[in-house]
Amino acid sequence: MEFDDGRYYASRGETDQFYFYENRLSNLTKDDLKIEVQDKNIVFIDGLLDKTKYGFTRSIRVPPNGKVDEARAVIRHGNLTITVPKAEGKVPEGNPRIIEIDT
């Protein structure tokens, strides 16, 4: 699934082993972002635009068999990719935590 309004691009997909979520966040670095697992299997992306007071929040609902406690995030050239490993069955709800962003 893809979304593109000219300013923000997002897509999601899956392989046999992972769910992945891609976001184009031009001109943002890992220092501009906070990625957090909160309620159940929901991942929140918070960011500041252009080092101003204006920010944004995006949320991603991960399917019940997503291992959110093992989620990883990487940002390169303004493209943020979050990968979540799959389990064989439903996994317990994830604990609230910050997902560190690699570059």
Automatic annotation (TrEMBL):
Residues 1-103 form the SHSP domain. Gene3D superfamilies: 2.60.40.790. It comes from the Eukaryota. Belongs to the small heat shock protein (HSP20) family. This is SHSP domain-containing protein. It comes from Genlisea aurea.
